[in-house]
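R.M. (postdoc): so does anyone remember the format we settled on? I'll just put the structure tokens first.
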């Protein structure tokens, strides 16, 4: 059975554009509700899907973190090619890491990170998350349990090089956070089951932006864009954007 593939989205609004970045194993649905909300406030919102994402786990492990950095740069330049010069970025989890990488190398109006890691101390959780994603995908393909178990175990073995590349990307971005002068909003769940919440403190303390804020969420998990506080999340991000002169 073929699983329907998700697609990027572009919600046209005014001249202020927001690049919305999903997390590892995720896709544009991660940030679709946020995009709809921001668009209702006038913002243009664009969410790409990185190579390997929104597809089978086999295709995901064939992609690289370098591919994803290039995909984010390409999305940024696509907005510029469409005439948008005022661009902000908001990313969930790994998307926030990629957003910080973009901010270190390109002019942006703002950067928002949501539950984004700065320490690669979560390989066990990453493996569990990838295993869950792979299992659910294969269940959608209507495969039997034995086949699913066999194929997922093989995928876990095949994913180790990718995990190490993710670790390298996180470390590289962490080392260069102090090169970011872009206004920054850091959002973090207190009870994040996937990453070390101290990552949020690190980002907030080390970005060199004059305009920066750190907001904690008490009742959300790692997938904060789907959580019970998503309405608060939407408003906090929109209010931060509205506070800036762009």
């Amino acid at each position: 059975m073929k699983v329907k593939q998700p697609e990027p989205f572009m919600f046209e609004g005014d001249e202020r554009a927001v690049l919305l970045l999903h997390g590892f194993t995720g896709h544009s649905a991660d940030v679709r509700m946020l995009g709809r909300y921001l668009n209702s406030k006038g913002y243009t919102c664009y969410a790409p899907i990185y190579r390997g994402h929104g597809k089978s786990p086999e295709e995901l492990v064939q992609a690289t973190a370098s591919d994803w950095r290039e995909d984010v740069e390409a999305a940024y330049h696509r907005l510029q090619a469409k005439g948008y010069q005022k661009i902000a970025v908001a990313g969930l989890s790994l998307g926030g890491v990629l957003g910080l990488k973009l901010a270190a190398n390109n002019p942006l109006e703002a950067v928002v990170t949501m539950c984004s890691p700065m320490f690669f101390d979560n390989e066990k959780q990453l493996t569990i998350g990838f295993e869950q994603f792979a299992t659910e995908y294969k269940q959608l393909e209507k495969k039997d349990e034995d086949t699913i178990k066999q194929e997922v175990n093989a995928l876990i073995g095949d994913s180790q090089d990718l995990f190490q590349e993710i670790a390298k990307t996180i470390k590289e971005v962490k080392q260069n956070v102090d090169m970011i002068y872009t206004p920054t909003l850091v959002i973090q769940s207190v009870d994040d089951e996937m990453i070390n919440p101290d990552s949020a403190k690190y980002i907030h303390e080390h970005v060199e932006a004059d305009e920066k804020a750190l907001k904690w969420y008490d009742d959300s998990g790692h997938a904060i864009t789907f959580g019970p506080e998503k309405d608060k999340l939407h408003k906090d991000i929109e209010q931060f954007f509205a506070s800036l002169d762009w």
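R.M.: ...and that's the designed sequence above, right after the tokens. Also worth knowing: The two ends are 47 Å apart (CA to CA). The longest strand covers residues 86-92.
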